[in-house]
Amino acid sequence: MTEKIETILETRNVKLWYGQKEALHGIDLDFAKKGITALIGPSGSGKSTYLRAINRMHDLEDNVTVTGSFNLMGKDIYAPTMDTVDLRKKVGMVFQQPNPFPFSIYDNVAFGLRIAGVKDKKVLDQAVEESLKAASIWEEVKDDLNKSALGLSGGQQQRVSIARVLATKPDLLLLDEPTSALDPVSAHNIEETLLSLRDQYAMIIVTHSLSQASRIADKTVFFLNGNMVEAGDTRKIFLEPDKQETADYISGRFG
Amino acid sequence: MNAKTADKIATAVIYAIAGSVVLVLVAMLAFILVRGLPHLSWHFLTAQARSFEAGGGIGIQLFNSFYLLILAMLISFPIALFAAMYLNEYAKPSIWISIVRTAIEVMSSLPSVVVGLFGFLIFVVKFKLGFSIISGAIALTFFNLPILTRSIETSLSQIPDLQREAGAALGLSRFETVIHIILPASVPSIVTGVVISAGRVFGEAAALIFTAGQSAPALNFGDWNPFNTASPLSPFRPAETLAVHIWKINSEGIMPDLSAVSAGASAVLIIVVLLFNFSARRLGQLLYKKLTKS
After folding, report:
1. CB-based contact A88 B184, cutoff 8 Å
2. Residue A159 falls inside a structural domain
3. Is A104 within a domain?
4. How far is B45 from chain A (nearest CA, A)?
5. What share of chain A is helix, strand, coil (3-state, %, to 5)?
6. Domain-embedded: residue A102
7. CA distance A98 to A161
8. Who among A87, A99, A150 is closest to B292 (CB)?
9. E strands within B35-118?
10. Which of B25, B149, B159, B19 is nearest to B83 (CA)?
């Protein structure tokens, strides 16, 4: 990732401690303005920890210390002047477990906009429709917008969760194993959704599924024991990785 | 004895014990209702109590009980809500928090007669509020606050952290997350808790004897100005409640039909408390359906 491409996020020497235990040992990574980057690696390698540092989800926990620089479009994410509320509007997140609010589908998707003060019904209607379309679930739910999102299947709930994030128009989308709690068909639908969004959004996805990374990611980053081992075009990482550890992991020799 | 037999015996014993709990309750309810129901009539429910002759009712006491309950809830609910929100959503484990929790526990185990005497000394005497609805409502607040706080806190804690993360990830502040996601999601179970605690408050006597007083002056139900002492809404009038009335007539009543009045009043009290309890769950389910549209 050394060639000069337009980046949305550059992190340098990112270290993170849980209490006294150092969990990330200085991560340098750049992310392009568009496209999907997959973070892969065995459990405990620090990929989710790194992902959650990008929208400061660790702020919700005690005892977590983060150092290093996160340059998000010219601003440091951890600068004292950075408002986490603003940050998370720019950096959306989709979680492993689908987590729609116990409201109607419409209210779920309109939620972020309403909080931001949008009251115009037409604007909301349009945003809800666009977001649900972008998340490839509009056709399935367009007649049931007033029904509870909790009544949907897991895969549908996850796409509503994605639509909910898209409605707030983030610049960067973080996805923390978004398909690992879903059945294969639902997982496939989510992948299709992500592929359809790759030209409009920068997305960083943590995944345990190597095949998923190879199917959807433009770039792939391999994490191991809190270190970033290797980053590059997905093809290269999978076919001719530079590092032996990467080759071992890809070929299933550990992890 | 093999494991299977032991299991069978244990199961039987557990069933028997659980059954006996139900039996005690049913026997008590049946006793109270069988004795009390024959005395119930529209007249009994609405008429004023009489001190010396037969044929008195419990109208004013019944009204007082409800009015006092509503006032006590109006005072205690916001406090309990914010206390619970603080404890469950904001507080981080610390000495301060364990002090708060211990305080709530101690408060919930205070004997209600002590709460009543405290209310008497502070509000009735010191603050010169006299035997009044407002003194009673404050005493009931002390009595109710710990249970209500605990129940709301439990309701909030049942909302999974995923929802809090989802709120935070959408750019909501902690307060917005609580107000717009956690509270709406927990409304049904909060309402259930409130109604159940209302049942407890409704039947409380000891805390009120020395605060809301033991007399029920005649009310003018045509006068709804809360600043007139004869108005039913006046918070500064003495107000004997139904539970206090039962205690009073049994300890010093001299009307000829006092056992009938006592039995009837007890039946009414029990019926209202049961209604609270049964409706609580139902109401919670209804609200959940309505709010989540499921």
Report:
1. no
2. no
3. no
4. 43
5. 40, 25, 35
6. no
7. 7
8. A150
9. none
10. B149
Closest to A195 (Cα-Cα) out of A176, A215, A181: A215
Cβ–Cβ < 8 Å for B255, B261: yes
Q: pLDDT in tens for each of the 255 residues of chain A?
A: 444 568 999 999 999 999 999 999 999 999 999 999 999 999 989 999 999 999 998 888 888 999 999 999 988 999 988 888 889 888 999 999 999 998 899 999 999 888 888 889 999 999 999 999 988 899 999 999 999 898 899 889 999 999 999 998 899 999 999 998 888 888 898 899 899 999 999 999 999 999 999 999 999 999 999 999 999 999 999 999 999 999 999 988 765
Please tell me which residue of chain B has the smallest CA distance to A91: B169
The three-class DSSP label of residue B126 is helix
According to the model, what pLDDT value does residue A5 have? 63
pLDDT, residue B292, reads: 67
- Other beta carbons within 10 Å of B90: 11
> Which CATH code is given to the segment(s) B40-292?
1.10.3720.10
The backbone torsions φ and ψ at residue A206, rounded to the nearest 5 degrees and listed phi first, read -90, 130
Specify the pLDDT at position A254. 65
Distance CA A211, CA B10 (A): 53
C-alpha A143/C-alpha A97 separation (Å) is: 25
Inspect the interface and report whether the beta carbons of A102 and B162 lie closer than 8 Å.
no
Residues A221-245 as b/e (b if ≥16 CB within 10 A, e otherwise) read bbbbebbbbbbbebeebbeebeeeb
β-strands A219-224, A35-40: how paired? parallel
Question: What pLDDT sits at residue A2?
Answer: 47
Contact A161 B184 (CB under 8 A): no
Output the pLDDT for position B6. Answer: 92
Residue A35, domain extent = 7-97+171-250
Asked if the structure places residue A135 within a domain, the reply is: no
Q: Note the pLDDT of residue A1.
A: 46
Domain layout of chain B by residue ranges: 40-292
* φ/ψ bin of A241: left (φ > 0), alpha (ψ from -120 to 50), beta (otherwise): beta
Per-residue pLDDT, B51: 82
Place of tokens 């049994």: B250
- Tokens 């996850």 belong to which residue? A158
Rg (CA), chain B: 23
The alpha-carbon gap from B182 to the nearest alpha carbon of chain A, in Å, equals: 9
Distance from the Cα of B280 to chain A's closest Cα (Å) equals 21
Q: Please state the domain count of chain A.
A: 1
Asked if B53 is an interface residue toward chain A (Cβ–Cβ < 8 A), one would say: no
Buried/exposed code over A86-118 (b: 16+ C-beta within 10 A; e: otherwise)? ebbbbbbbbbbbbbbbbbbbbbbbbbbbebeee
Residue A4, pLDDT score: 54
pLDDT of res. A39: 96
C-alpha B294/C-alpha B289 separation (Å) is: 5
Phi, psi (rounded to 5 degrees) for B92: -105, 150
Phi-psi category of residue B257: left, alpha or beta, with phi > 0 → left and psi -120 to 50 → alpha: alpha
Q: What single-letter DSSP state applies at residue A205?
A: E
Ranges of residues in chain B with a pLDDT under 50 are none
CATH number for the domain harbouring residue A42: 3.40.50.300
